[in-house]
Amino acid sequence: MVRYFKSLCLAALLGFGLIATPALAQDRAAAAAAESEATADDAAGSAGGHQMFKQRFIEGDPVWMAPVLVCLILGLAIVIERILYLNMASTNTTKLLDSVESALKSGGVDAAKDVCRNTRGPIAGIFYQGLDRAHEGVDIAEKSIVAYGGVEVSRLERNLPWISLFIALAPMLGFLGTVIGMIVAFDQIAAANNISPAIVAVGIKVALLTTVFGLIVAIILQIFYNYLQSKIDSITGQMEEASIALVDLLVRENHAKH
Question: CA angle, corner 89, sides to 84 and 90, nearest 5?
């Protein structure tokens, strides 16, 4: 009896395994298919979003959308150029000041000028101008530093007015497309002598799409413009602090000589 009971249990377990294994495999296959379908839906959604953006741009009438696109391209080109320039203009002022001070003590003004000449950035250029006029007195050197600092600030802000122009111009072009689209819609109403949504749909669509894309371009360029402005303000603050430190260093050197 015991042997029979064991055989019965073993048969039941084997039978359950044979039944559960296909069911488990089917569940895993179904889960994998669902995951693959979700991934495909996400990819299709991403591609669909890009395609929809492109389609909406084409539907907005190339005559009015092209100028908005030109504003975006030119604005981004200037933004990239300014970002690269400002990154190259950044200088470790503490390290530069230490190098200039060591050069002044060891080799005099000429050695300090060589240090500035071999260092890139507007702060090094300001230091060079101040050191170049140091033999005429601290007051003259300070005036030279202030004057050349203004020149360097203008170089940092170069081409920013063009970005401001594109920020203002893009939504204005969009609004112009809006007005033209509404005029076309009213002309179609007048020609058909019937106020029907199907008649005015095309003109209203062009009007809305040009406005939307103009605002999008302005928002993108405005974000980059604010970033560039904050970067310029940071470099300008470093220039002012470094200039004060250089003047103090020249005063100390002048007192040490006398």
Answer: 105
Which residue ranges in the chain fall short of pLDDT 70? 1-61, 194-203, 254-258
CA-based nearest residue to 215, from 173, 243, 253, 258: 173
Q: Tell me: the pLDDT tens digits for 133-188?
A: 887 888 888 888 888 888 889 999 999 999 999 999 999 998 888 888 777 777 77
Estimate to the nearest angstrom the gap between the alpha carbon of 113 and the chain centroid: 36
Contact 89, 121 (CB under 8 A): yes
Nearest of 94, 104, 100, 130 to residue 118 by alpha carbon: 100
Residue 119 DSSP one-character state: S
Q: Crossing angle, helix 2-59 and helix 62-89, to 10 degrees?
A: 100
CB 97 within 8 A of CB 249: yes
What are the structure tokens assigned to 14, written together? 């084997």
* Per-residue burial over 212-229, b = 16 or more CB atoms within 10 Å of its CB, e = otherwise: bbbebbbebbbebbeebe
- Whole-number percent of the chain with pLDDT over 70: 70
